[in-house]
């Protein structure tokens, strides 16, 4: 019963909270000595007390992938599922950095996206060192790096993190109010009334070298942006005027675009790229592009050509039918009175004139073979 989730715990992301940690890792935690001796029957306050004794972060280490104490306490929080206020107190704790790291990791596993950004982003202003135990050794990380990895990475401490939408998506949907709040914002509002330019100017006048560099960099980027915008606007005006004049000169008497006239008008340029770009400009005269007019005329020509070919084919087929006749045998209704009459019907009774396919014809053929005539 020590490994069972609290019966009053609600499901997280549609599953048991403990299932957020992979099955194999979870079984290794259940079999670890620290879980059996130190994590039995703990409450949220007891977990906070145990977290103050942590000396490092990490997932699994060693040849047999032994779980760290940090991971054992994270699973314990998933098992007992503390209240949201307790988790916020974990994150707001500035005295014990590993308690804050444990609360941030648990919130990333179970929290809502807007809540995760609101509570973990302030950790960007915490630059304290943290020891991280890897599978083969140790490394030094920082609290702001922990916050960045929790918000941008898919895995941390060997545990797959639930999908987190990007901040821009939540901002456009209205779940987050405004950009991330900077730690300098209270100071800027106090000294410069919220104007960052004015605040940098004040620091530069006081002799702050970084403020002077920042002001110069902002001025240079502003000038480059204005120069690019001016150059783009001039090119748009020039290209639009030239394209309109050249396109109008390439029209024929009926106002339709002629590709040969267009090439002849621009033959002095000798620049195919410029020719193609002019054809792609919009026609301010009637709201259609040059390519649209050119394609429309080409389609009309192809349609007329196809219609003429079809009419010629029909005429030729009729003339051939009149000349050679039908290749199929005519029916009785089509034959009419063309069948020669036999002697019984008042004809001359000539055997050569017997119509092929009639009863007399088949009786003659059967007589040649020595067979009896057909019964009438």
TrEMBL record:
GO CC term, one of those recorded: spliceosomal complex
Described purpose of this protein according to its UniProt entry: Required for pre-mRNA splicing.
Location in the cell: Nucleus
Biased composition (Basic and acidic residues): 262-282, 289-324, 331-344, 363-376
Region (Disordered): 217-238, 262-376
One Pfam family cited in the UniProt record for this chain: PRP38
GO biological process: mRNA splicing, via spliceosome
Keywords of this entry: mRNA processing, mRNA splicing, Nucleus, Spliceosome
Native organism: Discostella pseudostelligera
InterPro entries: PRP38
UniProt family annotation: Belongs to the PRP38 family.
Protein name: Pre-mRNA-splicing factor 38
Keyword Nucleus tagged: yes
Domain of life from the UniProt record: Eukaryota
């Amino acid at each position: 019963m020590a490994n069972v989730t609290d019966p009053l715990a609600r499901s997280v992301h549609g599953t048991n909270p403990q299932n957020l940690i992979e099955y194999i890792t979870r079984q290794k935690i259940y079999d670890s000595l620290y879980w059996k001796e130190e994590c039995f029957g703990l409450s949220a306050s007891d977990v906070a007390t145990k977290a103050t004794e942590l000396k490092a972060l990490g997932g699994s280490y060693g040849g047999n992938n032994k779980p760290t104490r940090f991971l054992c306490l994270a699973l314990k929080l998933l098992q007992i599922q503390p209240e949201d206020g307790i988790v916020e107190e974990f994150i707001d704790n500035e005295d014990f950095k590993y308690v804050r790291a444990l609360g941030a990791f648990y919130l990333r596993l179970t929290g809502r996206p807007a809540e995760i950004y609101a509570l973990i982003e302030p950790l960007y202003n915490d630059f304290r060192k943290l020891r991280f135990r890897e599978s083969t050794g140790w490394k030094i990380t920082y609290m702001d790096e922990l916050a960045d990895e929790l918000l941008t990475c898919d895995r941390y401490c060997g545990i797959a993190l639930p999908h987190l939408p990007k901040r821009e998506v939540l901002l456009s949907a209205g779940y987050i109010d405004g950009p991330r709040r900077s730690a300098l914002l209270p100071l800027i509002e106090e000294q410069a009334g919220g104007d960052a330019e004015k605040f940098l100017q004040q620091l530069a006048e006081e002799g702050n070298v970084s403020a002077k560099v920042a002001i110069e960099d902002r001025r240079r980027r502003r000038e480059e942006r204005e120069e690019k915008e001016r150059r783009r606007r001039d090119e748009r005006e020039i290209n639009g005027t030239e394209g309109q004049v050249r396109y109008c000169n390439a029209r024929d008497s009926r106002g339709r675009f002629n590709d040969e006239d267009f090439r002849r008008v621009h033959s002095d340029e000798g620049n195919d790229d410029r020719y193609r770009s002019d054809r792609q400009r919009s026609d301010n005269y009637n709201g259609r592009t040059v390519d649209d007019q050119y394609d429309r005329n080409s389609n009309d020509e192809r349609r007329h050509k196809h219609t003429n070919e079809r009419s010629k084919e029909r005429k030729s087929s009729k003339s051939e039918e009149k000349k050679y006749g039908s290749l199929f045998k005519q029916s009785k209704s089509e034959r009419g009175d063309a069948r020669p009459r036999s002697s019984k019907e008042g004809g001359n009774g000539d055997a050569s004139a017997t119509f092929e396919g009639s009863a007399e014809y088949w009786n003659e053929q059967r007589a040649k073979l020595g067979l009896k005539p057909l019964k009438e």
